[in-house]
Amino acid sequence: MDASSEKSIVSISSCNRYRIDTMNDSLKMLLEPWGGINYFVKSGQRVLIKPNLLCASSPEEAVTTHPVLIRAIADLVKKAGADVMIGDSPGSDDEETVYKRTGIEEVANETGARLVKFDSARGRKFYGIKARNLDLAAILDKVDVIINAAKLKTHPLTGITASVKNTYGCIVGKKKAKLHLENPLPLDFARLVIDIHMAVKPNLSILDAVIAMEGTGPRSGKARKANLLLASENGFALDNIAARLVGIKPDLVTTNYIAREMSYPGTKNIDILVKGLPLEECIIDSFDAGAAAGRNIPGLLANFPLSWFRGLRNNLRPFPVINKNSCIKCLKCLEGCPAQIIVRDSHGIPFIRRESCIRCYCCRELCPNGAVDL
Ligand code: SF4
Ligand code: SF4
After folding, report:
1. 202 burial type by CB count under 10 A (0-12 exposed, 13-18 middle, 19+ buried)
2. Is the CB of 363 inside a 6 Å radius of any atom of ligand 1?
3. Given this model, what pLDDT does residue 306 score?
4. Amino acid 304: pLDDT
């Protein structure tokens, strides 16, 4: 075995638009390092494609994985003779509305893929960084292959959301909010996200970075054209490359940082082999990495185990504030707050009781109008 075969491969291909013919070609190039989709999928298998379907937003908003990518993956999997399912547990809005608005329902109709709901949990104990009861969607036990089809976006808690964070959506419904509440500190949340990713164990992760999201992601940021697709069997390796593409150190992504501390495979730069386009040629110029761009002190302090350093680190994290001028009073933040500490003022505008806020930033993630500032 030569040294390169022990490395985690991350493939990069270019894709300059969401058109099915362009996407088919780009996906074919992307999977070339493995000899195509048949490396992952065999005839007769049941394959689940898990996109990022955070909420009911249209593909142009760059909040969700684009349906043209999902269509191209589904077509390939079908050609391999497998049965295709598509599903996710959205952070807000019901599945029917989300599947319709994100274009996923149309993909299912066109390809014959089955839309599945993540509405029942298998509730199994998982022994990862720590022993946890994870309410993962029961459908995960009924499929042979999982394709994690993520979207590249900024995220206030983890730095970016790419392949590893996307598997958080495999936790059923409101249990996601409960886990946020139980893991309020960024590095504890990162440990949780890593454990979920390891429990889900996608066979292949594909990252939609044709149009990424910069700034105040994962919901209210700006769409940013990057013209790229990425793929890997190893989600940590893929996220390491994704971080470098957007111009931040991989360690500023909390899941990367913790996974590297744990010495998981594919977490160090030297453990990764980039195939397809050279990484240096793909760096996205002056990408606004949002919260991750200013995150270096907490990352540094994370190395100190002393409790007062942990306290200081926690105090450096900003509080969310509702911008009354942008608020449309939809109350999605109030409904989705894991700590249930958002109330309404006399004008019906949500108000955050700061003293009880765990700074999970779910309110910011769920707000459809970018009305939650930090
Ligand atoms: S107010 Fe926002 S950041 Fe604070 S606990 Fe609720 S959802 Fe989390
Ligand atoms: S802050 Fe955002 S989510 Fe909350 S009510 Fe206003 S618009 Fe809706």
Report:
1. buried
2. yes
3. 44
4. 42
Tell me if residue 295 falls in helix, strand or coil.
coil
Q: Which two tokens stand for residue 123?
A: 């509730």
The β-bridge partners of 321 are: 373
The list of the chain residues with pLDDT below 50 reads 1-3, 297-309
* Atom of ligand 2 minimally distant from the CA of 367: 3
Task: Pick from 328, 344, 349, 366 the residue to mutate for probing ligand 2's pocket: most ligand atoms within 8 Å of its CB.
Answer: 328
Ligand 1 near 360 CB (within 6 A): yes
Distance 340 CA to ligand 1 centre (A): 8
Q: Rounded distance, CA 193 to CA 164, Å?
A: 7
User: Which residue shows structure tokens 């989709």?
Assistant: 37
- CB contact at 8 A, 34 and 237: no
CB neighbours (10 Å) of residue 106? 14
> Which two tokens mark 339?
């700590």
pLDDT of residue 230: 99
DSSP class per residue in 209-225: EEEEEESSTTTSSEEEE
Protein residue with its CA nearest to atom 2 in ligand 2: 367
Domains located in the chain, CATH noted: 3-294 (3.40.50), 318-373 (3.30.70.20)
Protein residue closest via CA to atom 8 of ligand 2 = 330
336 close to 91: Cβ distance less than 8 angstroms: yes
Q: Does residue 337 contact residue 181 with C-beta atoms inside 8 Å?
A: no
Do 11 and 282 form a contact (C-beta atoms < 8 A)? no
Q: Are strands 204-214 and 145-155 parallel, antiparallel or unpaired?
A: parallel
- In this prediction, residue 308 carries a pLDDT of 45
Q: Is the pTM of this model over 0.85?
A: yes
- Please tell me the predicted confidence (pLDDT) of residue 2: 42
Quickly tell me which residue has 């493939």 as its tokens.
Answer: 11
Q: Determine contact, residues 170/118, Cβ cutoff 8 Å.
A: yes
C-beta 361 within 6 A of ligand 1: yes
- What six digits make up the tokens of 292? 């991750």
Quote the CA–CA distance of 46 and 48 in Å, as a whole number: 7
Q: Which of 363, 367, 372, 373 to mutate to test the pocket of ligand 1 (most atoms within 8 A of CB)?
A: 363
Cβ of 362 closer than 6 Å to ligand 1, yes or no, is yes
